[in-house]
Structure formats: C-alpha cells, structure tokens
Design a protein that fits this description.
two-stranded antiparallel sheet, 14 strands, DUF7781 domain-containing protein, DUF7781, mainly beta
Length: 186
C-alpha cells in the first residue's frame, strides 16, 4: 500500500479492517405467552465499559399492532412504559416513553430517535439478525459496521499522483448476543 496523497505513512491491513467478535452485551431472555400478553424476564450482562448486570420484567401485547411495552427493573426500582418504535421514514424511528423511579421519587418522560444508518463522519450500519434454532429457542445478534468505502483517484499535470488508492476502512463488531427461550401453551 502506498502512502496517501496527504503524506501519511501506510497503515497495516489490521488497522484498516478490524472485526471484533467478542460481544459487550449478553442477554438471556425467558418468555411466556399468557392470555394475549408476553411476559418476559430479561437477564442482561454488560461487559464494557464496566461490568454490570440488570434484570428486567417485560410485559407486551402479542397482537401484531402492539403499541407499547411495560418494563420493571427491580434492581433500580424503575418502571417504564414505552411505545413501539414508530417509523418516521424508511430509516428513522421515534420511540417515546414515561417512567417512574421509586428510589428517586421522580416521574418523567423521554423520547429517542434511532436509525440503522449514520455515525460521526463515518458511514455506519447497525442491525439485529435473528436465528431460530427450533421452536422456543432463538438467538439474536446485534452488530455494527463502521466503514469508509475504497476510493481510487488520479490526476495528470496537477502535481498529484497519476494513480492513488485509498483502500477504505471497516470496523465491525458483534455488540450483543441474546438467547431467547419462549414457552408457548399448546
């Protein structure tokens, strides 16, 4: 690899393309469907930036047009009611919620705009991929890819190189692994 037109030293392929397969979040979710409502117990383990554990009790309707979910966090003594993600455009979603902290004796609301695209000057894809092993056991993988596409440039008579190639960059990571166990009444 040649130095770029900005005079920087070439970097190694390891610096240009990096894929991290060690997830920073591990979730174990137990779900039970009871009379049109899914009751879930989520055990969430976070590895970075600090080791942390959370447990959540989640209730949400099973209907296809479900519009909310209820979350209780016993460790933090918090209760939340969140809307489902409301599509604003093909790639932009809005979610709103109201919550109460029993420890702090406060009630408030929050909103969140999310997208699978975007980043800080770098193109980013964030996505979740599901894999159903058999009925009642699913795995979901949350992954991120930050990338700069390769670029080939050149010039004649300008003092710039005749041929210049920027090989692009890729930083991909497996951020979350979820094991989801669902019990359905037959």
């Amino acid at each position: 690899m040649d130095a770029g037109s900005n005079g920087e030293e070439p970097v190694s392929w390891d610096e240009l393309y990096n894929i991290n397969l060690m997830p920073s979040e591990l979730f174990l979710k137990f779900r039970k469907e009871v009379q049109g409502v899914r009751v879930g117990l989520n055990l969430e383990f976070y590895n970075a930036p600090v080791n942390e554990y959370q447990a959540k009790l989640v209730l949400k309707p099973l209907s296809p047009d479900r519009r909310w979910k209820f979350i209780y966090e016993p460790v933090h003594h918090d209760v939340h009611i969140l809307s489902k993600k409301i599509p604003i455009t093909k790639f932009l979603n809005l979610q709103v919620g109201v919550g109460h902290s029993f420890q702090l004796h406060t009630t408030g609301w929050k909103w969140k705009l999310t997208t699978c695209l975007g980043g800080n000057g770098i193109s980013r894809i964030r996505n979740k991929t599901s894999l159903g092993l058999f009925p009642g056991l699913d795995f979901r993988f949350g992954w991120t890819a930050d990338y700069v596409l390769p670029e080939i440039t050149g010039a004649v008579g300008t003092g710039e190189p005749l041929f210049n190639m920027n090989s692009g960059r890729l930083q991909a990571s497996l951020d979350r692994v979820e094991a989801i166990l669902t019990h359905t009444s037959s």
